[in-house]
Amino acid sequence: MFETLTKAPGDKILALMGEYAADSRPTKIDLGVGVYKDEKGVTPVMTSVRKAEERILSKEKTKTYLGIAGNKGYGNAVLDLVLADSVDRARVRIAQAPGGTGSLWVLMQLVNRARPGATVYVSDPTWANHNPIAINSGLKVATYPYFDAETRGVKFDQMLAALDQLGAGDVVLLHGCCHNPTGANLSDAQWDQVAASLVRTGALPFIDLAYLGFGDGIEADAYGTRKILSSVPEALIAFSGSKNFGLYRERVGAAILVARNGDEAEVTNSQLLNIIRGAYSQPPDHGAEIIRTILEDAALRSEWETELAQMRNRMISLRKKLADAIRERSNSTDFDFVADHRGMFSLLGLSNDAVEHLKAANGVYMTGDSRINVAGIPEDRVGDLADAFLGALR
């Protein structure tokens, strides 16, 4: 049987990780892998998470199955965190899923059951995994304009014009905040216009909310999602707790659906749970129970929000320091956009030759499209990194 197969293309991020690991230079810098790192270059375990785990360990009495929808307390806590009072909960259903990726997969399978072969419109560019998940779910993929390579901002007029051409049955995948890979994000006023466009066209919003709290704060980052949900009759949200709780390896996410009314929500949810049952059957509990424990306890939640703010503010500070260092050395504002972007990533707009030069000459690793993880910038070497960037452009 297997002689019919050909080798699948390798994952570029994993290949980059291998190259970085094999590089013996002590001055090498990893700006490629999309995980948060502290000032020591470590992806830390939050103290609020550690306390929650200790509490869980001391009180846990069983390892029995959760049920198809997962940890119900986690689900309710996530809905409170994400939705607040933006939508009538009678129209909402949630199922725990293995990470944000699992949430996306489950919801795209649901879309294909509701509208086989529907087209999902993704931003140009978008996270590399969006396209294969959609295609493997039986959906078609098209793009809408998003990133302006000259200004490093959003091509909002072109984006809105493209969205206005869509119709009922089309799906629009939106990054809820902290756009990956570009770091360029919509303003509140632009979110308002996107919501109005979706109302006009009837296209289905599908929000990937992987970085809530990593941009400008939980409430600010949730604005776009809540605006959309308060405006449209139907929506899908894929939530991830990997970044904002530092729970990457625990694979904890949530698939959220909003229907026109409670009856449709119940029917649609039955299909969602049927998809889960036929795939991984039931989700793991540990990460979900950590998040539930934190969000339901006032002291732990306060501690978590403080830690999240520290991570967020550190990334904002690194952005400003890098932009300032480049401006001081070049007497140019060409890289000031780095300070304006939000989240872990910025798309620098460098050529592939420049990216390869940085890797070979300076040991600076980033993805081939010149996306950098700003959390990977060593604070004591910002000047060196600025010099390397400018050298690669000469």
UniProtKB/TrEMBL annotation:
Top-level division of the source organism's lineage: Bacteria
One GO CC term on file: cytosol
Coiled-coil zones: 301-328
Required cofactor(s): pyridoxal 5'-phosphate
Residues covered by the Aminotransferase class I/classII large domain: 27-388
Any one Gene Ontology molecular-function term assigned to this protein's record: pyridoxal phosphate binding
Keywords annotated in UniProt: Aminotransferase, Coiled coil, Pyridoxal phosphate, Transferase
GO biological process: L-phenylalanine biosynthetic process from chorismate via phenylpyruvate
Self-association and partners: Homodimer.
Family affiliation: Belongs to the class-I pyridoxal-phosphate-dependent aminotransferase family.
Full protein name: Aromatic amino acid aminotransferase apoenzyme
